[in-house]
Amino acid sequence: MAISNKNLICNALETRMLRCVTQYEAIKTKTSTEFKMVKDFCKFYGFSRQNFLKIYNRYKQNPVSSMLVPQKRGPSFKFRRTDISVEDRVAVLRKQLLNRYEIVNILLGEVIKISPSTVYNIFKRCGLNKLNCFYSLPKIKSGQILVTK
Prior knowledge:
Structural class: mainly alpha
Strand content: under 5%
Shape: elongated
Helix content: 40-55%
Number of domains: 2
Number of helices: 7
Number of strands: 0
Distance between the termini: 76 Å
Radius of gyration: 29 Å
């Protein structure tokens, strides 16, 4: 049975960090022969004291080797995303060729508080951030006179 690269890396990191934890505890009890201070230990292994202590304390709370591997941060975009009805309203207003500041003022009149940067992010998600997709101006070469009928 083949082990995936991710599992192989996690296992190697777990064993390395477990070794680091035992060395750290030896330094704290002053029985280490390799390192005299924690600063030297962290410098040798190439991580900051703050990050190591975060991992060490997490391991001490739950002594499972999987706690020595950096934990996945959960998605936050699903929970903080703008309401779909507001996004649809912004898209309708954008198709009327309004910019983000005008849209914010219109939505404030409708008692929807939204920032201009959020409106711009909605533009990008919906592919509405460039107005040239809605209308095109006639291209004029320099020196050419535009005649409209």
